Amino acid sequence: MCSKAEEYHSTVWERLKILLLCAAPVLLLGFLYVWGFSIPVPVLGRSYVVRIELPQGGQPLDLPEVLGPQDKTRPLVVIDAGHGGVDPGAVGPGFQEKRIVLGLAKALRDRLLEEGGVRVAMTRDDDSFVVLAERAAIARELDADLFVSIHADSAGEQADVSGATIYTLSDAANSQASARFAQRENGADVINGLDLSGQDEAVESILVELSQRQTAARSDEFAALVVREGEGRLTFHPQPRRSAALAVLRAPDVPAILYEAGFVTNPDEAKRLSSAEGRDDFAATMASAIRIFLARNAVAP
Fold this sequence. Notes:
Layout: H1 4-34, E1 76-81, E2 91-92, E3 95-96, H2 97-115, E4 119-122, H3 132-141, E5 146-153, E6 164-169, H4 171-185, E7 190-191, E8 194-195, H5 201-230, E9 236-244, E10 256-263, H6 267-274, H7 276-296
Parallel strand pairs: 1-4, 1-5, 5-10, 6-9
Antiparallel strand pairs: 2-3, 6-10, 7-8
Helix pairs in contact: 2-7, 4-5, 5-7
């Protein structure tokens, strides 16, 4: 057994070590100052900015390769894996949204190509960064018949939240998007087969909004098909159908959904979405919904 004197000296020594550890940085700075070394110290109140180089605006789109049949009459589906590169998206324990959704996007691409009859393009097929506004623009430039943007959600500290949700563009956002598009294009474009050139602004705005409504109805139809085809195969949130003013869905003439595959903050769900089985279930569901949608809308695959 230790004596009280030994116990006292041990306590003093432990406290001295803690004091030395705390004082070490101050002593080091003092030593460097005495010897004339200059150390840059942040100034209180000064802002520090991390800069990330982004692609220059106004440049021609770098269009992805279109895979599948060479026949351009075949329907084209553009698959958009969200985030990427410097943007990891939502982050959970050991999981990043950008990696999960890229795996799901590739699985859907491979499934569609394997079944044949459909052309496929991806906004990104590796860990690269794509500007948000360019994602839907790629679909328009390629004259796509359908745009599917794949994401995964975050529930913060609520690790038990799970289930997929499907977003389409809200009604209010539809009207705003059509107005902005009409103003930006200035009558020099074709939407859903309607030539807007030569129309006055009032007529043009009406035609664009009608096109947007038609596109929105098709987007809603496709979202409903995904829920139906995923029954018993995918896990959906109790409220799987939602609408929001999402920039990636604002193309006025390409039916589009944003699919939130699940929650990366839920370890079990993130693990399932990252697994081969999870990717296969997603790809089978989405591919089935895509083919039914294309057949219904007379775009024969």
